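To close the chapter, one final illustration. This time we ask the reader to focus less on the individual chains and more on the assembly as a whole: which components sit near each other, and how the overall shape emerges from the parts.
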Amino acid sequence: MASFRELRGNESWAAEAWKALCKVREMAPLVQCITNFVSMDIMANTLLAAGASPAMVHAVEEISEFTAIANALCINIGTLSPEWIFSMKTAAVRANELNKPWVLDPVGVGASRFRTERCLELIALRPAVIRGNASEIMAVAGATTAPPKGVDSIHNTPDALEAAKELAKKTHCIVAVSGAVDLVTDGKRVLGVSNGVSLMQRITATGCAVTALIAAFISVNPGRPLESAAFALALFGLAGEIGYEKASGPASLRMYMLDALHGLDEAAVYSRIRIAQI
Amino acid sequence: MASFRELRGNESWAAEAWKALCKVREMAPLVQCITNFVSMDIMANTLLAAGASPAMVHAVEEISEFTAIANALCINIGTLSPEWIFSMKTAAVRANELNKPWVLDPVGVGASRFRTERCLELIALRPAVIRGNASEIMAVAGATTAPPKGVDSIHNTPDALEAAKELAKKTHCIVAVSGAVDLVTDGKRVLGVSNGVSLMQRITATGCAVTALIAAFISVNPGRPLESAAFALALFGLAGEIGYEKASGPASLRMYMLDALHGLDEAAVYSRIRIAQI
Amino acid sequence: MASFRELRGNESWAAEAWKALCKVREMAPLVQCITNFVSMDIMANTLLAAGASPAMVHAVEEISEFTAIANALCINIGTLSPEWIFSMKTAAVRANELNKPWVLDPVGVGASRFRTERCLELIALRPAVIRGNASEIMAVAGATTAPPKGVDSIHNTPDALEAAKELAKKTHCIVAVSGAVDLVTDGKRVLGVSNGVSLMQRITATGCAVTALIAAFISVNPGRPLESAAFALALFGLAGEIGYEKASGPASLRMYMLDALHGLDEAAVYSRIRIAQI
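The assembled structure is written out below.
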């Protein structure tokens, strides 16, 4: 029951989201991922399904050259270790030097001091976007000191909105909070995305995968990180909705969702994308 | 063609297995996994499908804090290396300090002296449950010195029963042997589980995944490791049976099995669980 | 519109390919894989679907013993690091000592000097087969100095044929170039394989998986590496074709392809294998 104004807004978001997806498919941006071991398969397949080109490259010895040929960088601290953190920092610094966008997924931040500190050091290197669940964003923002329940959120996105805005202002990053409604903010504007189905949470690393997708979208629209993040979240959520129509559980949802992402067409995007300025 | 007595026994096992699954779904235990790279995706998705919350965390720097928030720990030596073994030991010691259950999957033990020695060192740290195939359990028990064929069993579970009982007595662990009939023993009692389909062996890391599931089940029923291990094996096997009805090969079995695990209901569990005291 | 001569040739190739697959299923060769993290799940599942037995083992501490029980070795530099390269070299040397075949997948070679140098060092250890996409083979052969686009090819296989032949002559390895038509050469003879569908490129690590399959096929037919490589490429491509008939996108293709590989029968192999001497 959206008002006329919202519908108009939604239509223009849909047009832009579709255009952004076409651009990803056409340009096939190379996304370098330094990510956790659990997420590698679904992240690579998500990028491929969207038309991007994934490359999991973490050796410090080749970052200088490799980050130079990549179009964007995705850093995810899920299965972090001191060696991998060093690779992440090296790549982030290199991406900054070359003016390439990079995104950060602060998986499980708050679960240990080591994890939180490394995460804050990475944020100090200025990612274009930070995407996490409500608990992760609140932990990064210092809005909660309760240890999280592993990598799953114990907070809802509305709880995290103020924390996300504060964090965005303080860090000059776009902050995206995933949840039933995803929120994306630059500290002033807030976009809400209500695509997706809750069963996606029963598939490991869907959050990680969408962060990589954000990296792909930002790289083809460098001036618009706020909108790009919202588009990636909305299109991935929409793929989940379409996949859900055929799914009989989380594993078939994973499959049909990736198929749907690959097959997304203009009609589906125009009629079903749900983005609104909040 | 089970006798009346067995059927009665089976019904009460089914009731308990169902109750245990409900408890996992309700409590959503956080299971920390230090596991091989091959298994991470299916292990995380198996835990999520069952209602648990997986977290793959191996950095020594955060084990002290992370194991403290976990409800159980799953250690799997598949792609072991000295660094990861150090993490495994650190986590096992920490779990013991905190009185949290941990389970061990001795993948490929016997294939090298290094692997066997590290495995025995881990067993000396007293896991609640050791789960392996017949060849692995026999190698751990010293009942065979023939090198295994990689990670696949060359022995049958009945061959391994005496070895499993001896191992359980000597180590004070529950020992579970996977196979056509799974055997679970504390050295005195033996439970047999005959759920599952042989095609599951053509999916990588199903054994690893069920070990993680055992960790989840033990954490919600800490006093009953023998039964919890049997329940996890039976329910995972049942999910495989249900998945098999739709499958056209190992890859679709993997998908439908995880869907079935997520959707398991009381009727299926009561009518199809096959557990018997042997 | 193949000529009579080609058809006859094709029939005898099909007979041999089928025989080779039967041999893999019967002997279940143990294939040790030191491979990138992204590929581990699909590689292990591909080997299992074909009837082989995968083992991902990389610790230097156990290579001496483990490579001794393996039937073949697959080395893939995708997510390389100095430590893993050391394992790869140690295993390659050990395989050579024991006269066991090993294959090399030079993922992303050319993307950094570090990667290229390590790759050339591995080639100096004389793999039985090198399999890559056109860009990778051209980079290895020194036929291009343009940096690749990550791990995806920017060249076509016909472009790479001369480079492949030169490389095969210089290194005394079989060189296989994957593409719309796969080319396999020993420097003199060239076999072309035209099975497969292009959507397979939208699934991560299909190239890695087929390299592991080549290792399995070579190990059961040690005297015929050229033909074995062609059979593995053709059968994997055929599985992709059969899977494609049911697929609705890349993720379902991945599933149905592995199911089809597991279920491949004589009729399909005889009627649909497309191998020709070029």
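The longest strand of chain A covers residues 30-34. Strands of chain A lie at 30-34, 53-56, 72-76, 102-105, 129-133, 174-178, 182-185, 190-193, 275-277. With these observations in hand, you are ready for the problems at the end of the chapter.
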